[in-house]
Design brief:
Layout: H1 10-14, H2 17-20, E1 54-64, E2 72-82, E3 85-94, E4 97-110, E5 113-123, E6 127-138, E7 143-152, E8 156-157, E9 160-161, E10 165-172, E11 174-177, E12 179-186, E13 193-200, E14 208-217, E15 222-231, E16 235-244, E17 252-262
Antiparallel strand pairs: 1-2, 1-17, 2-3, 3-4, 4-5, 5-6, 6-7, 7-10, 8-9, 10-12, 12-13, 13-14, 14-15, 15-16, 16-17
Length: about 260
């Protein structure tokens, strides 16, 4: 995680590169810490990989579309996870250089409760370590609660202090896995605020997923939106676009792929 935090969409995460030299992982702009179970959870909630017994791999390529500027590739990420152990890598192309982030996590579960820990190593014009703790709790068949303690130790990355923050959230699945409604809040640092989102798997013959998310500041003033579409079930290919609050343009777009294999035991 970064100073931009999981509450800030592609506009804030990817167009402030030259100023902050710290960029949030793209997965955190459209997913929620209580509604992600594959290796991407490493960037949102360290407990996520232990909620289900599975193995997964993913990759994500993000293009930045600055207003009045030329489109360029801003971020590439990849990772894998299996049985609670996970690893992720993030490559950022800044105006003034290249940044690398490596994350390794371990998570376990007992009954409805899962907990996890992540260590992040920042390289490329810096050498800093940060740490996250997270948990997820299945409070019945349709409600998942969770929280992440982000940036423990408050590392300084390329001159930017990553403030400690608590990020609680919840996900409701009233129709089972077909429909998920999620919310989160971030408390601490300069990026306090909230996010609401929905994920829907329409009853089409071709498996697919639609998602939408709105982020606000602490006064509930809209910051921006994320919209996405994916094809596939356990193996998915998807696209995500983030926009400013007036939805006047696309600030960043991503193409991602994820493959998941469930373990029988």
């Amino acid at each position: 995680m970064s100073r931009a935090t999981p509450l800030v969409l592609g506009l804030l995460a990817l167009t402030r590169v030259g100023a902050t030299q710290v960029v949030v992982n793209r997965s955190a702009t459209y997913l929620f810490p209580t509604d992600v179970r594959d290796a991407r959870a490493l960037w949102l909630n360290p407990a996520g990989p232990a909620v289900t017994r599975s193995a997964s791999v993913y990759a994500d390529v993000t293009a930045v579309h600055p207003s009045g500027g030329a489109t360029r590739f801003g971020q590439v990420t990849a990772g894998f996870g299996s049985r609670g152990l996970s690893f992720g890598y993030q490559y950022d192309d800044f105006d003034t250089g290249i940044g690398h982030t490596y994350r390794i996590g371990a998570a376990g579960a007992s009954g409805p409760l899962a907990a996890g820990f992540v260590a992040a190593w920042y390289r490329g014009g810096t050498n800093a370590w940060g740490y996250d703790l997270g948990f997820a709790y299945a409070a019945g068949r349709t409600l998942t609660l969770g929280a992440t303690a982000a940036n423990i130790g408050q590392p300084v990355v390329r001159g930017v202090k990553l403030d400690f923050a608590m990020v609680p959230g919840l996900t409701l699945t009233p129709l089972g896995p077909r429909l998920a409604m999620s919310a989160l809040g971030r408390f601490g640092g300069e990026s306090e605020g909230y996010a609401l989102g929905v994920r829907w798997n329409p009853p089409w013959s071709l498996q697919g997923t639609l998602l939408a998310r709105m982020d606000t500041d602490q006064d509930l003033v809209t910051r921006g939106f994320a919209f996405g579409f994916a094809i596939g079930g356990h193996d998915q290919v998807g696209v995500v676009a983030t926009t400013p609050r007036d939805v006047s343009r696309v600030d960043a777009s991503s193409l991602y792929g994820v493959a998941i294999r469930q373990f029988a035991h």
